[in-house]
Design a protein that fits this description.
- The chain is mainly β and 234 residues long.
- 8% of the residues lie in helices and 50% in strands.
- The chain contains two helices and 19 strands.
- The strands form five sheets. A six-stranded antiparallel β-sheet has the order 11-12-9-16-19-14. The protein has a four-stranded antiparallel β-sheet with strand order 1-2-7-4, with no helix packed on it.
- Strand 1 and strand 2 form a beta hairpin.
Length: 234
Amino acid sequence: MDNKVHGTTMPVLELSLSSGESVLAQGGDVSWLSRGFDMHTSTGLGSGGGGFLGGLKRMIGGGQLFLTQYTAPAGGGQLAFAASMPGTIREITIDSADSFMIQNGAYMCSTPEIEISVGLQKKLGAGIFGGAGVVFQKLQGHGTAWVQLSGELVEYELQAGQSMLVHPGHLAMFRAEMPLEFATVKGIKNKFFGDSLFLAEIHGPGHIWLQSMTPDKLAAAIEPYLPDRGGDNR
């Protein structure tokens, strides 16, 4: 299987599959594909053999209950996935020594042996991220996955004993074995958090990927330019 990322601000992942090779993705996420692909949709895909319950865990983690497996015909084929946010697409190799936690919505597609499940849910309170808190999905198994991360990326390698405080929306991806805690920082006042700020504290050793853009910040930036739905638009 060959892959190529096209573009910069709104990248597209193009996969070239040989005959019989397969890739998993959430239903409706594929942007275009060549003719002849066999498509199979099931709750059991991407669940590590967990069947419906595995699909339910994935849905609890912010993903879809059903995944679709695209299998290339004789002679092979191409399919593409377009990023839903300005940012970058990263390929990650996963095995028993390297599993990853990713922001909800970052999963793009993967090879069939990858399991996608809920990794962490944290409710941060009313008014924080709409009261829904933060959700991380866990990618494990053996194979390759592609994730879409928002804005520019900054990477850090934390050593044992090191930690970093990060706004949860900017913590795009980290190795699954790294401990993560949430702390309240008093004395910071803004329209989202009142008189305190919730930060994630991620502990080393391990690698973290931080994204410069969050969906909340993008929505806040374009909100002043949207039409007033309650006003008179005549």
